[in-house]
Write a structure and sequence with these properties.
Oligomer: heterodimer
Distance between the termini of chain A: 15 Å
Radius of gyration of chain B: 23 Å
Strand order of the largest sheet of chain B: 2-1-5-4-3
Order of helices and strands of chain A: HEHEEHEHEHEH
Shape of chain A: globular
Number of strands of chain B: 8
Largest sheet of chain B: 5 strands, antiparallel
Number of strands of chain A: 6
Distance between the termini of chain B: 55 Å
Strand content of chain B: 25-35%
Chain lengths: 179, 187
């Protein structure tokens, strides 16, 4: 049984550099949102309320442009789970290290910071896209592979979120470990 | 502007919780409106649109396609009034004409002369722009001027970048052209 307090407060923040697929990931989670191939950068922030099986989530999607970084301190506060999204190119993965350090300084120690190695569908065609394991080795945080433009990956993303939030609940003593 | 209360079709009060963020505190529909706006979905984004950022000027009204919102903040709360855009269609049409003219003039100026304001980018920025261009072209075809709109670059700079990407065989020219402009795609 999930604590009703935690249930009401579950806040997920999605960070990452521009055009790595943050908003596509948010759309994958939200209902009735189809993938639009036209890239429109997020202007500041986008927010959505999403109901999962056990959680009511507030998902905050932060625009990746440098100008928005200064506002992160205000809006990242209180996050229960932070995703750092990369497009799985070596350059972007390495640049994401700075974002991870920034997030670590802004959220409390109990909040997991998880990397998403997005655009895994391109790994087959492009040699310069990295597999999740390699991204994890470089970033030193837990990393999951994802293809956010693929609607069938919605289930996978939900499982990742539920798994990580469950861990947070256990760490906070709000839920007993299932193992 | 003359105002009639009949233009008002709804109102909402958006509160702000330091942990949870913006939330819909109260709403009222003054008349039945079909899918003009789903307040539950948009309350948080309205809040940020009106109050986002820490400093500087904030908007009082935002015009959307089918309605506009006038918002009044009090402490952390924001009271939004939803209005039918009656009587402003003509103004919008005129303003749209002016905006189109300005954008057209800007495009023509860009073609005639290089923009001196565009500064030289460092290597790191250049590589980041190349990464973004490849992402933009993934599954898409875009012309050079279309790509340029995403960055603060002049014609020479975007062409140098595209030439570099072409030389490294990451992009290629599409068979089609958009006007006189080259259309690019991923190789």
């Amino acid at each position: 049984m999930v604590s009703p307090t935690f249930n009401a407060l579950a806040k997920i923040s999605i960070m990452g550099h521009p055009a790595v697929g943050k908003t596509t990931m948010l759309k994958l989670l939200a209902k009735n949102d189809n993938f639009d191939p036209l890239y429109i950068p997020t202007q500041g922030f986008d927010l959505k309320s999403i109901e999962l099986n056990n959680y009511n989530l507030k998902v905050w999607d932060f625009g990746g442009q440098k100008a928005y970084l200064k506002y992160l301190e205000d809006y990242l506060d209180g996050s229960d789970l932070v995703f750092i999204v990369t497009d799985s190119t070596p350059r972007n993965v390495l640049n994401s290290k700075k974002l991870i350090e920034l997030a670590k300084n802004l959220v409390d120690g109990e909040c997991p910071i998880i990397a998403i190695a997005n655009k895994q569908d391109l790994c087959k065609d492009e040699e310069n896209r990295m597999k999740p394991k390699l991204v994890e080795d470089l970033l030193h945080i837990k990393t999951y592979g994802l293809t956010a433009i693929n609607p069938t990956e919605k289930k996978k993303l939900i499982e990742i979120i539920e798994k990580e939030l469950n861990h947070t609940l256990v760490r906070k003593g709000l839920k007993e470990s299932e193992f | 502007m003359n105002f009639s209360e009949k233009e008002l079709f709804g109102a909402a009060l958006i509160g702000f919780d330091m942990i949870d963020g913006p939330f819909l505190k109260w709403k009222k529909n003054f008349e039945a409106t079909k899918d003009v706006v789903n307040l539950d979905d948009f309350a948080m984004n309205f809040y940020l649109a009106f109050r986002g950022g820490n400093a500087g000027k904030k908007p009082r009204a935002i015009l959307y396609d089918k309605f506009y919102i006038v918002a009044f903040p009090k402490d952390l709360e924001l009271c939004c009034l939803f209005m039918k855009p009656q009587g402003i269609e003509n103004n919008i049409k005129q303003l749209n004409n002016i905006a189109s003219r300005i954008m057209l003039e800007m495009e023509e100026n860009d073609e005639e002369e290089e923009n001196d304001d565009a500064s030289e980018s460092d290597d790191d920025t250049v590589e980041e722009i190349k990464r973004l261009i490849l992402n933009l072209l993934n599954g898409n075809e875009m012309s050079t001027p279309d790509l340029r709109k995403y960055f603060k670059l002049n014609n020479s700079q975007i062409w140098k970048l595209m030439s570099d990407l072409e030389a490294s065989q990451k992009v290629k020219r599409s068979d089609q052209k958009k006007g006189r402009a080259v259309v690019w795609t991923i190789k």
